[in-house]
């Protein structure tokens, strides 16, 4: 640490930003964006019907169902990712059950690959999507759906032209809440992934805590922050069209 | 037809709830398993908890986590109350910037926050250890505490303060005898949240702790990344989980008037 300190002089240079393009960083960035995008889409597709299911319930039932979505928020990502490892491990419950049923003869290798990371991300981020979706659906006026129905629209049409546009703010808020932290995720790829699922978070971790290249590490993180800000700005401009996000 | 869709939706949602809870349940149940095998039930036992009790590194990690979180909570409660007060009661130049910067730690990717802290310590030459961990935790826990305490101050009826002042109490006396007791549930809720974010924190602690200092999440991470799944780790994770859930329930009770 001390020798690093001695090298800490202020000399403006763009060297580390040029280095960025000659390194594995662009590949890692592309992969992280893809993973975050996949997680967002999967959470949206999985979470939308469930949010709807909760929103059309009423009273105590709805409260209980919602509480069950909120409880996972109280458990840290580290613990929940570890909990998922107990399922996916070579000696984990999935393999034990499948082996004892005779469906497989060798334990499956379910961890340390990209699919496991994606599953871990969806598992951890799903509540972040459901909460804003639910908030936007709760406000949905069901009379409008009935009106669409009585005017001759089928369920599919009513969904596409009434429900979907009216829950747009929830979709926008949920997507940002999932996408932004997912791009910089560290714990999930570190515990569940292998070398081919190395993400920006892992790169920054390695640069700062393993190889101690603080300069290049800083350039990488500045690019990450710029990217996240850009994504959020674009999203707000084109998808939510400047509407306030409902949380 | 409608009924069929309703049933499918119900079954689907139920499956998703199982997906959300099954891993945690498996982890908790198998922490009480009387076997080294991870997923074969051999009867109830506390033996893995016993091995934890005998492990001094675990005790050390629990001890570190608790005192860091307590100190973070106390400092955040004091500074958070002061910040919330200033934000609600006074207007000054640069208030909007200060106000939005409060939300910064809640929004930006955690890892960039962690490395900013590390860079700051390297740049200023502060040696890494328990001290830098606490400073780092306070730096973001303040945001959470302030947001919670401020929510309580927004609906505050100031006429009681005016009554106290017209009866001759000065600013300080009014604050400690009238205002503080009234906003205390909010302040405690803010402190509990600060305790929780500190107690659960992994990434910022990992960046700022240096080699010699280990908290509970760091211990769990080290065990999980080196040895993978183990019954001891199931037990340690279950203990950590119970504390997290207990803190959340306490916050829930405080938020309901």
Q: Please write the string of helix (H) and strand (E) elements of chain A.
A: HHHHHHHHHHHHH
Question: Most extensive interface: pair and counts?
Answer: A-B, 59 and 54 residues
- As a percent range, the share of helical residues of chain A equals over 70%
> Which CATH class of chain B?
Mainly Alpha
Q: Would you tell me the structural class of the helices and strands of chain B?
A: mainly alpha
Stated plainly, the CATH topology of chain B is called: MetI-like fold
Integer average pLDDT of chain A: 85
Beta-strand residue percentage of chain A: under 5%
Strand segment count of chain B: 0
Instruction: Supply the CATH architecture of one domain in chain A.
Output: Orthogonal Bundle
CATH homologous superfamily identity of one domain in chain A:
MetI-like
Gist of the model:
The complex is a heterodimer of chains A (247) and B (257). By secondary structure, chain A is an all-alpha fold.
Task: Name the descriptors.
heterodimer, A: 247 residues, mainly alpha, MetI-like fold, 73% helix, 0% strand, disordered C terminus, B: 257 residues, globular
Structure in words:
The complex is a heterodimer of chains A (about 250) and B (about 260). By secondary structure, chain A is an all-alpha fold. Chain A has a domain at about 15-55 and about 115-240: MetI-like fold. Helix content of chain A is about 75%, strand content about 0%. Chain A has helices at about 1-5, 15-20, 25-55, 60-70, 75-90, 95-100, 115-140, 140-150, 155-165, 170-185, 185-190, 200-210, 215-240. The relative contact order of chain A is 0.14. Chain B is mainly α and about 260 residues long. Chain B has one domain: MetI-like (MetI-like fold, Orthogonal Bundle). Chain B has helices at about 1-30, 45-55, 55-90, 95-100, 105, 110-125, 130-155, 160-165, 170-200, 205-210, 215-225, 230-255. The longest helix of chain B is centred in the N-terminal third of the chain and has 34 residues, at about 55-90. The mean pLDDT of chain B is about 90. Chains A and B meet through helix 3, helix 4, helix 5, helix 6 and helix 7 of A and helix 1, helix 6, helix 10, helix 11 and helix 12 of B.
